[in-house]
Amino acid sequence: MDFFTTLILLLDSTVRLSVPLLLAALAGLYSERSGVFDIGLEGKMLAGAFAAGAMAAVTGSAWAGLGGAIVVSVFFALVHGFASITHRGNQIVSGVAINFIAAGSTIILGQAWFRQGGRTPSLPGTARFGAIELPFADAVRDVPVLGPIYSELISGHSLIVYAAFLLVPFTWWVLFRTRFGLRLRAVGENPAAVDTAGISVAWLRYRAVMCTGILTGLAGTYLALAQNAGFVKDMTAGRGFIALAALIFAKWRPVPVMFACLLFGFLDAFAIRVQGTPLPLIGQVPVQFMQALPYILTVVLLAGFIGKAIPPRAGGVPYVKER
Amino acid sequence: MSQTAIELNGISKSFGAVRANRNIDLKIAAGTIHGIIGENGAGKSTLMSILYGFYQADSGRISVAGRPAAIKTPSDAIALGIGMVHQHFMLVENFTVLENVMLGAEGEAVLNSSIGKARAELKRLERDYGLEVNPDAVIEDLPVGLQQRVEILKALYRGAEILILDEPTGVLTPAEADHLFRILRQLKDEGKTIILITHKLREIMAITDNVSVMRQGAMVATRHTAETTVEELAELMVGRHVLLRVEKGEAKPGPVMLSVKNLTVKDARGVTVVDTVSLDVRAGEIVGIAGVAGNGQSQLLEAVTGVRKAVSGTVTLDGTPVELTGEADPIDLRRRGMAHVPEDRHHVGLVLPFEENENAIMGYHWQDKYLKGPLLDIEAIRADAREKIEKYDIRPADCRLKTANFSGGNQQKIVLAREMEQDPKVLIVGQPTRGVDVGAIEFIHKRLIDMRDQGKAVLLVSVELDEIRSLSDRILVMFAGRVVGERGPETSEGELGLLMAGVDKKEAAE
Questions:
Q1: Which of B296, B274, B293, B286 is nearest to B431 (CA)?
Q2: Closest chain B residue by Cα to residue A189
Q3: CB distance B92–A197 less than 8 Å?
Q4: pTM surpassing 0.90?
Q5: For position B510, what pLDDT does the model report?
Q6: Which terminus of chain A is less hemmed in, N or C, by CB atoms within 10 Å?
Q7: Which domain holds residue B126?
């Protein structure tokens, strides 16, 4: 295999691996920009993945799976909202609780309903979001350079992949070109200004966490119905936290979020690619080290290379009218 | 007689056991400037927050322009044409002026066309009222005077006919305040009604048509401004006769006790906030540092007291240098005779959930008289606290009470008692009367003069120019981190005001 083909394949899996990160990070962006920190992305994604797998297994429809994932994930988001907006609880504690609840309940319910050790039944292609061949993908396959890029890298992904990348400019547009976005950014910086402008802080933040729920539901659906053929326990495997890191890394801005997620996706793809192959000069690298690489890089990047990430100023602080 | 813009009948509001407003009646004529004056905690802000829909009154009626109005939220108030400029600006700091003005009044869901309209409307307001400000400037880059202008624009943009201003001049230089007053008069000429909340008598006399006085949650009097005097208003505010001027004799300066040479301090972002400042404070004199808030006074105090790291320069306390690396030991400084009344008593000066007697020794708790072996001598501490309560007339006289339950003035007295009773050589005082009622101000000022007369070196930082002028023997003015001038206490307010704005009259004349 020549270098070019290898590179295309590597980038192709980069795209696939970065999509759940991208969806989860964009989800977190809505919530955190409104001033509600969300460490529970992981849990919501996991619950969404389980709901998608279960619904698709029962109904045989991928779309029903997606619907179920969004409902469940939005429900968890509203629980987080209820704790941290209405009851002004600690947002970190609430988020951690959601992660635990999701991790535990998906296994218990999975075992109770399907009796396959916490997983959902393996799904047939019809109950999944399959690959979409873009027009002329076959026709241009043999064109040098551009052909493989189009037919391998750009074509042949599931609908959710395309949706995820379209959500990047859409989120930018919502944030910077709509009334909702203006208010969302304002409430994350100074909720008192929003309140005195005659806008309900609580309702605005609830809408933000609902956006988060929808997107984590989508992320979960991708894991269970596009990347895999069903739900497997703990299938999010820390992606919610990596997404959070990407969000901070990108300083809460949509387009940099995409690049951050692609970078993490690339590291992941690279680690998988070089598993078991001896590297020049270094020789055989233990698999465990390659798997740890994305996390090590996250720490290094966050610690030193991105400068100071200034979060939304009202982030993590419940809004209380001052006397 | 003109129409009534706002009428309040029997408004009452309690927060727990505190009755912030009791049975308040108030009538405000349309097209006038109506002042509401009262001490801190008299209930002025609460009343206005009720009018703006921020709080709900427990009882009472509001009518606007003769019609009964139910104001449940700020959006109700905005719909009725009421706008408010809050004491602490309600601006999103990293938004542009335009975004802040539009927030909550954006029009359509997609902003494309409404941005253009908002820009045009801002232009019109700018032209009509002389409220110039660059719509694309980011708020945090603007000086406070302009930020306040944005708040006024916000209200006018929403079509406010009645404008409430809560302590608007606290953050302004005298010149900026004069400019604000010109704008307010112009708004009045346009037929707007203005409600001005303040605790500064001078402002009331300068600009209002009518004035209402509040005391302890009740409305005690309403007067035509032309028919009242400063003395009468002060007495109504406090409920007894007050001395407005501080009486003090000549200073007898002794040797230099505190000497600061070329002190430079940078903030976390690397911006120079104190720029090669030098000053001397002698025993038996009060040196006042005047300046608009945010011109480096706070950082100067912090560096001198060893709390904040300085970049360069020296500070000498009674002949020995003070560590300026930010690692100075506060106990060591106190042992050497530097007492410090911090600017922010809530976050630095006191631990609010602690009992009064605990706060009364904090920072001096290591002294033998408060210890019994390795343990605190609780009895001695409480006896000591009771003594200070008596001497400083701290009310309520209960050394076991949680500090948060004392009023601002009494909390400040707790800090002052703690620092002054240690018999320091140098007393460094920041904003001694911020949020303190008139009665307590009188007391605190007298104590500061006493300290001076006992031969202490006092360094006073205050944003209240009146306070600086009446207490100081020498006045240094800070602007943009530098000491831009030194003047005597008899210097006119106008001249000091210009210095505070960075204009040196002598240089300007040349």
A1: B293
A2: B92
A3: no
A4: no
A5: 47
A6: N
A7: 4-238
